[in-house]
Amino acid sequence: MKAVIFDLDGVICFTDKLHYKAWKNIADEQGIYFDEKINDRLRGVSRMESLDIILEKADRAYSFDEKKEIAEKKNDIYVSLLDTMSEKDLDANVKVVLDTLRSRGTLLAIGSSSKNTKKILEKLGLRDFFDAVSDGTNITKSKPDPEVFLKAAEMLGIKPVEAVVVEDALSGIDAALAGGFECVGIGEAAMHPKVTYPLKDLADLPEIVLRKNADI
Ligand code: B16
Ligand code: MG
Prior knowledge:
- This protein has 216 residues and is an alpha/beta fold.
- The chain folds into 2 domains: 3-14 and 89-215, Rossmann fold (3-Layer(aba) Sandwich); 16-82, DNA polymerase, domain 1.
- Helix content is 44%, strand content 12%.
- The chain is built from 9 helices and 6 strands.
- It has helices at residues 16-30, 36-40, 47-54, 64-82, 92-103, 117-123, 147-156, 170-178, 205-215, and strands at 3-6, 107-111, 132-134, 163-167, 182-186, 197-199.
- A 6-stranded parallel beta sheet has the order 3-2-1-4-5-6, sandwiched between helices.
- Helix 1 (16-30) packs across helix 4 (64-82).
- The protein starts with a strand and ends with a helix.
- The structure holds 1,6-di-O-phosphono-beta-D-glucopyranose and magnesium ion (MG).
- Its EC number is 5.4.2.6.
- Mg(2+) binds at residues 7, 9, 167-168.
- It holds the Pfam family Hydrolase.
- The active site is at 7 (nucleophile), 9 (proton donor/acceptor).
C-alpha cells in the first residue's frame, strides 16, 4: 500500500459543529426545522446538496437564485467560524498517525468534498504537509461518486489498488469502493457493511498499513 487518502471533515478535523452552527443560523432565519440528526445526513455531502436536504423541511419551494444566495450566506458564516480555528485544533492523535505514516514513506493525500479544504489545512498548520490535495474545487461530482479519490490517486501517480481511503461518512465509503479502493471506516462509516477495515480508533491505522504491506 503506497498511499493513504484521508477525508478531511470528520477524519483529520472535526468541523461538524461549525457546519451545524452555520446551517442552524440559516434554517432559523428561514423558519425551517433543523437539528443535529439532520446535520448528520450532511456528512460528506456537497454544500448545495446539503441545502437541498435542509429544504426538505421547508413549506415552500426555493428558486435556484435563492438557493445560491442562501448557500453563499451559510458559507460566509462557516468561514468566519473557521477563522477561530488554529493549530491547537489539530488532534494530537491525528498528528501522530500522520507523522508515523510519513516517516515510513507512505504517500499522504486529502480527498474532501469541501471547497474550504485549503483554508482548513492552513489553519491546522498542515498547508504543505500532504503530497496531494483533491477537494471540492477540483471535482464535478460529489461522494458517493469516486471522482475526488480518483483525482487524488492521479495526483499521487498511483493506482487505486495501491491506496487506502479513510472516511467517516457512508457516502465516502461508497465512493471509495466505487473507485476500486480499499477503505478504512471510522465512526458511522465503520458500520458500512462493505467497509474493508472498520476502525474504532484512527490510532490503529499505521498498524493496518504495515500489516497490509507485510502481506504483499
Ligand atoms: P464546503 P468532507 C464535507 O467534507 C463535509 O463533511 C460536508 O458536511 C460539507 O457540506 C462538504 O464538505 C462541503 O463543504 O461547504 O466547505 O464546501 O467530509 O468530504 O471532508
Ligand atoms: Mg467526512
